[in-house]
Amino acid sequence: MQGTKEKLSSQETHTPSDSIHASSMPRYMTLLFAVVCGMSVANIYFAQPLLDHLSREFGIDYSTIGILITITQIFYAVGLLLLVPLGDLLNQRRLIIGQMLLSVVALIIVGTASSSTVLFVGMASVGLLAVVTQTLVAFAATMAAPAERGRVVGMVTSGIVIGILLARSISGILTDLAGWRSVYLVSAALMLCMVCTLFRVLPNVEREVKTLSYAQLLSSVFMLFVQERVLRIRAILALLIFTAFSILWTSVVLPLSAPPLSLSHTAIGAFGLAGIVGALAAARAGKLADQGHGQRTTGIALLLLLISWWFISFTEQSLLALVVGIVLLDLAVQAVHVTNQSIILTLRMEARSRLTAGYMVFYSIGSATGSIASTQIYSHYGWNGVCWLGASVSAVAFLFWAVTLRATNAALQRRPAWK
């Protein structure tokens, strides 16, 4: 194992500019990264409330239009494996700006699509290129000073969660005002503005990687899982927490839109605002990780995740209970996610993009698993069944953390910045 690790390291040489955190990352830069990440990830969620419009306009059967969302998510996962690792090989500034420019083109293709084939190609491209968010997270970790890295990662990833939660509401509002095409054309215009801004402010971090081909770069993602126990543990936690996250947000529309509640889509979308409160509150988790409390933060957050399902189970009797549950769940999931990334991004400075890529693949698997499982459980066992499923996954996550606590601490003790 040690020989493999040394072989991988010997294939990579980096310029000193890889470590550019001599001073703190400006707050405006952190906020800019968060905004860009939120806008980029929102592009793959805009279509969810638009499926009925797209079905009618392009003559796609209701039973198959959902494939559009699946294709977008599949290509996002492909991008995680094929594009994000390039951040360890290429100039990150050029990579980010290039991907965002291509995203602008993809959004215009979707917004002007004249056939279902063009629509599907455009959405696949949008999903593939949305992984620029993860390149930005890794770049932010590189720019941040070690003492503030967790806080910076926390703020940037909070932007991602807020983008996901707001995407549906923004999509619905723009569609009501100017039609579904305006969603993608407005996003393209805003993304172009962000490209111009990043072109002006992003530092040019040159790196030199010798004797490491693209194929070796991709294979090294899998080698990192073999070599880094902490990465394996935190990736499994990511799978479990995002399964729980997806269980709620995929299925909550079903009891809210059905009698006796029968809420409108606008009212249902407003519950995403409660999730934003939790996501913002969790940004502090990164700061706690910077102070060496990553493990404790994880345990408390996972316990809150389990408790949140008790409140969520009363959805049909009390919407206030649902709001409390949503805040707790989003707070817990985001706190664990921020802590996970804050920890794994310290494992290998030269492989931050690959660490992020490998970790986020488990995020994608968890999201897909939660979406499929929750709708199936709801159709057979109703909302109570969904809540038991979510609570069970959350309990497994807490138990897994407890069982691996000693092993994780042993690994982190070899890195003084973490406890």
Give a concise summary.
With 419 residues, the protein is an all-alpha fold. The chain contains 18 helices and no strands.
Blueprint (SSEs and pairs):
Blueprint (H helix, E strand, L loop, with lengths): L1 H9 L16 H16 L8 H8 L8 H16 L9 H20 L4 H14 L2 H12 L5 H30 L2 H21 L12 H14 L1 H23 L1 H5 L7 H17 L2 H7 L3 H19 L6 H26 L7 H52 L1 H8 L7
Explain this structure.
This protein has about 425 residues and is mostly helical. It contains 18 helices and no strands.
- What is the helix tally? 18
Mean pLDDT: 85
Number of strands: 0
* N-to-C series of helices and strands: HHHHHHHHHHHHHHHHHH
Question: How would you describe this structure in keywords?
Answer:
419 residues; mainly alpha; 18 helices; globular
